[in-house]
Amino acid sequence: MTSPILITGAGQRIGLALAEHLLATGQDIIVTYRTRHLSIDDLERKGATCLYADFSQDDAIYSFINELKHHTTSLKAIIHNASSWDCETNNPDSAALFDNMMRIHAKTPYLINLQCAHLLLAYQNKNNTPADIIHLTDYVVETGSPKHLAYAASKAALHNLTKSFAAKYAPHIKVNAIAPSLIIFNDDDDEHYRAKTLKKSLMGIEPGCGEIINSVELLLNSHYITGRSLPVDGGRHLK
Known about the structure:
alpha/beta
């Protein structure tokens, strides 16, 4: 295996699309999953290394990191995609919700970045080109969210970590974020919700996972962009 790219939360949606794209280009990948969807079996058949990880517990984060180190001695990039769209309405235990959002969206990337930096540096030393860390944040980092307070706060923490890690690891590792708004609807989203959501952006479309794939490729191919957040929001900030 050449230096793989690690993608967290690649069992469905954006993470899965990224994994399939990178495999199609011949890039070795390691992915994490919490629920073993049929897509994980398919990724394994295509050559991906798929590791179970439950980032809702501190011990499990460290267990995953230790297992990862048994599978590779270097990493070309880490893409932090694992996420939970939990909210106050669905979770009456506010303290537990806040802790879980922070653990999944901020503590997990924080610990992985610290504990796996030597794997990224091994790639950089061998290839004489920077390795990458990419954080998937959210449009709500700019605006907050009255319906997803803890979620928005945790993604804002990840946005800030982007700047801190970029300064810490430059010039050997580039660290950037991608901040999407709507990318793809869920299958159970009704027509009223879809129409209302589409009106929130200037472009007024469901762009699809290709927009995130293009953004990831831009950051991976750049030798100069670091410490930045790439908005993928269809001009939503101007509405």
